[in-house]
# Entry
Amino acid sequence: MLNRLRIATLFVLILVISGCAGGTMVVLTPNPDGKTGSITVSNQAGGVDIKSPYNATTVKNSTESPNPPSELSRDTINTIFSEALSIEPKPPVHFILYFEKDLLLTSDSVKLLPEILIAIKERSSTDISVIGHTDTVGSREYNMALSINRANSVRDLLVTKGVNLNHIKTTSHGKENPLIKTEDNVNEPRNRRVEVVVR
Amino acid sequence: MRSCLLIIFALILVLFRNLPCMAANPDHVGVVKTMAGDVEISRKGIQLKAQANMRLLKGDQIMTGNNGKVGMIFEDDTVISIGPNSKIVIEDFMFQPNEKKLSFVARIIQGTVSYLSGQIAKLAPSLVRIETPHATIGMRGTHILVKVD
# Structure
């Protein structure tokens, strides 16, 4: 009698465990800028769209369609994902510095420098990209050299402000990668630029 | 004759100095940015202990132990962080917008994952996919949390 009860308990336990184990939960949350995108969760049995923040779906297995989305409380989300969220790095940030001509930064771009330094400090960044570009006035070779000089001048500026030289990687695209597509030999201030990515 | 050989030697040096750069760039898809506890990377069957600033390659499997967690930043600005007892694989990653070569496929085998999409999801949302044993997640520029057991 006792044995039978044991077996029955074991059977229920196995059912419960196999019911709990296995499955995917997906929660849509807002981006750092406050906006929320949208996702589709699907498998061979069907799919659901989620468009509202903090809505979630669960999927038991690949042959059962995802459940209709429902809202989760912030507390529940934090309980489940606190560890993953606690180690989430700050997203990389991009800056664009524009040039009047040659190596002369616009005054607005000079004012951006302190923000770049703050971004580097906040992230303890050791992975900074500095990418030089030009507009399409002049030859390929001339612009390649100019974009290299622009990238190097921004790198040197950061280094004089205390950034470790070894943490900066410079690349140069000459006139090949314009922000604004133009014909050849067009003076376009928005293409005379250096992009700084702080990761 | 000797100076000629020297010049050839110098030219070869210059050529090969640039080669590793050109070869390494497409391979490196992201870096380990933040971590704590036990984190391992399985690369082509070899187990590596993860360290901050370590570079990640396509095909890497990232695993955390009981006390492990790790945050990663990818070349297109995608940010992925995973909690303890988790396992994910970077199945595919291409980020060459100029050549329109874009793709990001990650597979979550188990655990808890936070995923903030980057530029690939903006430029070509249909080419970004997260797979779990139970479903596939497609997205348009967003932040999601996924738990797989």
Residues 2-27 of chain B form the longest helix (26 residues). Residues 29-148 of chain B form one domain.
